[in-house]
Amino acid sequence: MTPEPSRDFAAFLDAWELFRAPVIAGTIAGALVGLLGVYVVLRRMVFLAGALSQTAGLGVALAFFGRIRFGLEGLWGSPTLGAALATTTTALLLVGRRTQQGTQRDSLLGLAWLAGAAGTLIVGTRIVQEVQDIQAILFGSAVVVLDDDLVRVIGLALPLGLLHVWWQRGFVQAAFDADGARVRGLPVWLLDVTLIGSIALSISLCTRVLGALPVFAFSVLPAMAALRVCPNIERALVVAAAVGAACGAGGYYLAWRFDLPVGAAQTLLAVVFVAVAALVERALLRRVG
Amino acid sequence: MRRDTGTLSDVISEYPLLRAEALRIGYAGRALLPPLTFEVRVGEMWAIIGRNGSGKTTLLRTLLDLTPRVDGGLERLGVRGIGYVPQRLGLDLGVPMRCVDVVRGGLDRGWSFLDALRPLRARAQVEQALRETDTLAFAERQFVTLSEGQKQRVLMARALACEPGLLVLDEPTSAMDAVAEEAAFDLVERLQRARGLGVVVVAHHLAVLARRATHLVYLDADCGLVLAGPSGDVARHATFVEHYGHLFDPPGPHEAHGGHCDDHDHHGPTTEHPR
Fold first, then answer.
1. Cα B158 from Cα B122, distance rounded (Å)
2. Please, which contacts does A114-122 make with residues 24 or more away whose CB atoms are closer than 8 Å?
3. How far apart are CA B153 and CA B135, in angstroms?
């Protein structure tokens, strides 16, 4: 009987070459999607990640259908283009659609989710051979991340992160006081399109690299934790990014340490952060009064 | 008419901040009311009044370019821009935001959000807006924990942060009691004098405006009647008196022409703009 290999932190670092890509990808994706999640949560779009996955699925299914039925080749039959078009269309439909309570946008998310799911199922009956490929294309795994995918995540996160630091005041004003921003001449439509577009793009790519569960978790839970303990949105953006990054990296380590599924470990760690934030919030409220 | 001589403040006070010329408001290309003409100048307080559904908010949103106008001209002439105080911030009250953050949020105009250092350079502007609205003491408190009167003062500070020439308020006292309402309009008057502002305000409660509004826009969708001009002139119009009594001015020999609401039904819509 062979002894259990050591699973302490030193052993984790020894095997770093093996874990490097998924840990870095998880950390960066956690930070990026965590930061954007503040807008997702505050604008009541928590099901955006799910809705985009479903519509992207429909886009991929339609691309396969076009290949089989109409002989589309090259770019026009590309599942990636199909997913991108479907995702972008959904995101654009959401721009500016809101009432005071965000109910219209919420309904549209439900519509996108259901139309995507039903459409994928219906088109799927005509492309039986390729149905498995749809899942493989759309949903990656947080366990194994290819170097190419890591480069893609970094290539997206770096410019988007810088843009969100630079344009943060514009995004916040367009998102939470659109009328006031319009009166003061801010380009609200452009800011809204850029914000929703960057969220859609980040969620789509990260889902493709890491899988649906952790990305959905990154888009909701770090923001929930941050908004409980931060006095304003600016600090919440920083804390949410930090919590997201910690969940991406820490979740991977916990999965390795306790032999858990990676996406689930990252998600559960984020849940723990929310619980801790709730306790801190309660303590802060008690101290204040 | 513009004078050829006078002090700088005379010239400034004659310079219009906002000009509506035969302006028609409505939705989907359909006009709600007859055309409306007026100019708002420095030092003037224009109150937009009328019953529920008369088009007050539509007019205000049209003046702010938030709702497209059906027809006519609208010019925003003040170089200092507009400070807008909404009925409530388009913000979920669950969002964490200190008062100072709310005020800072009003700093940017146009593309100034691209200047990352602007909040640092504009600290004095924010502090002055907080001080002028008596909100400096609770600048660090969460906006959601404030009373309605305090919230409204913070929103006024937000509107002042970008140093506007025209202050536009949409029912700023709708959630206040009479004492808080009086205090809120005292503050508006004080700010108007201190900063040399023009003011446009939508309001329901006329008693508190009677001593303050220099001009009125009276809207009556039922009669198809629009009146705009100095308070005394508008307040003497028969339809206005019929609805509100002699709130602004005792009736006198200068009673405005126009007759009762029913009369206008016979003669078609009336637009009066005494200026």
1. 13
2. A114/A54, A115/A54, A115/A55, A115/A58, A116/A51, A116/A53, A116/A54, A116/A55, A116/A56, A116/A57, A116/A58, A116/A86, A116/A90, A117/A54, A117/A57, A119/A58, A119/A61, A119/A62, A120/A54, A120/A57, A120/A58, A120/A61
3. 7
Looking at this predicted complex, what is its ipTM? 0.82
pLDDT above 80: residue B4:
no
* Rounded-to-integer distance, Cα A87 and Cα A200, Å: 7
- CA–CA gap between residue B157 and residue B180 (Å, rounded): 17
Q: What is the CATH number of the domain that holds A42?
A: 1.10.3470.10
**CA separation for the pair A19, B76 (Å, rounded):** 60
The average pLDDT across A129-138 equals: 72
Indicate yes or no: CB of B90 within 8 angstroms of CB of A167. Answer: no
The range of the structural domain enclosing residue A132 comes to 9-281
| In chain B, % of residues over pLDDT 70 | 81
Q: Is A198 domain-assigned?
A: yes
What are the tokens at A238?
Answer: 């920083």
- Are the C-beta atoms of A168 and A241 separated by less than 8 Å? no
Question: For the residues B215-236, what does the mean pLDDT come to?
Answer: 88
Interface mutation vs chain B, best among A194, A232, A235, most B CBs within 10 Å: A232
* Cα distance between residue B146 and residue A184, in whole Å: 25
A265: part of which helix (H) or strand (E)? Answer: helix A262-288
Q: What phi, psi does A272 have (nearest 5°)?
A: -60, -40
Q: Please state the φ and ψ torsions of residue B40, each to the nearest 5 degrees.
A: -105, 130
Reported confidence tier of residue A21, pLDDT bands at 50, 70, 90: very high
pLDDT at B254: 41
**HEC letters along A107-161:** HHHHHHHHHHHHHHHHHHCCCHHHHHHHHHHHCCCCCCCCHHHHHHHHHHHHHHH
Q: Helix and strand tally (H, E) in chain A?
A: 13, 0
pLDDT at B156 over 50: yes
Question: Where are any strands of DSSP class E within chain A?
Answer: none
Percent of chain B with pLDDT over 90: 41
Higher pLDDT among residues A78 and A235, named by residue: A235
What's the confidence (pLDDT) of residue B248? Answer: 65
Taking contacts as CB-CB distances below 8 angstroms, the residues of chain B near A169 are 105, 107-108, 113, 118-119
**Residue A3, in any domain of the structure:** no
- Token pair listed for B252: 């006198």
Instruction: From chain A, pick out residues whose CB is under 8 angstroms from the CB of B114.
Output: 166-167, 170
Predicted confidence band of residue B90 (pLDDT cuts 50, 70, 90)? low
CA dist., res. A140 & res. B111, Å (int):
39
Residue A288 resides in a domain: no
Give the integer Cα–Cα distance in Å for B50 and B239: 11
Q: Which pair of tokens denotes residue A143?
A: 């366990």
How many angstroms separate the CA of residue A183 from the nearest CA in chain B? 6
Q: Does A285 touch chain B (CB under 8 A)?
A: no
Strands ordered across the beta sheet of B36-41: B36-41, B16-24, B71-76
Q: Is residue A231 part of a domain?
A: yes
Token pair in block for residue B217 = 């826009």
Q: How many domains does chain A have?
A: 1
